[in-house]
Amino acid sequence: MPGNRQPRVRSGNEPRPASTMEPEGRGAWAHSRAALDRLEKLLRCSRCNIFGLRPVDYADGENMKSLLLLPEKNESSSTRHCSVTSTGPRRDGPLVLIGSGLSSEQQKMLSELAAILKAKKCAEFDNTVTHVIVPGDTAQSTLKCMLGILSGCWILKFEWVKACLQRKACEQEEKYEIPEGPQRSRLNKEQLLPKLFDGCYFYFGGTFKHHPKDNLIKLVAAAGGQVLSRKPKPDSDVTQTINTVAYHARPDSDQRFCTQYIIYEDLSNRRPERVRQGKVWMAPSSWFIDCVMSFELLPLDS
Q1: Which SMART domains does the annotation name (predicted)?
Q2: Which of 3, 119, 120, 163 could hold 95 in an S-S bridge, CB 3.0 to 4.6 Å?
Q3: pLDDT for res 104
């Protein structure tokens, strides 16, 4: 009788029945594996943090240090590239489009695409933007485009809009992405690395005409930097003993120990006294813009 059936007790050595792996389970496992691979790459990274230390410098014991100093697994550059570029801002949420430097006809076509893709089209840049569309084959030094670069957005040629309209579907972005700086920034964001000006402080002295000071301040904030209200003093002990380094500076450069920049407008006739002492360097505004466009902390001529 069913009522007299004894409950079956499984011994500790008896294997449990294998659970059926659902697609979500495989996806979660793959996501975890990808996260572990990314963590491994970050731990093996030779970059320094804001205190000038690498992951290996925090290792507790020789065994951990030896593991972090092991060479990376052999991996073809094409496989590594695909694994990084196969994901992007579009996959994480809805598309938010903005045009920079587009003609009125191009803006109209972008609005048509937004309707087809059920995307949002912005007039002003904000932190929800995922795609910045430019008219040609190069990035522009407009505020919208530079904010898009620093935020790790897709910076795409207008040909992408045409291709999407032709198919009435979203085309893969990689083929239409502006190379170099914009691509570097997007990959930097996907790898969860610090922003461009992480560890850097900026003081803007004088007037700025080509790029207004308010815009420069917005760029510093978008790049993870800090704005100084007072001009740093190179001979100050407090200034020179700040124990931070610039993350994106070249590891073999003395510039990684420079954390405070005095920026001046190099297009004006007035040139301030040159400063390059310890952690305080002077740099023209054109250098600042070039850093943003290339997504690199570019070297400064001595």
Answers
A1: BRCT
A2: 119
A3: 93
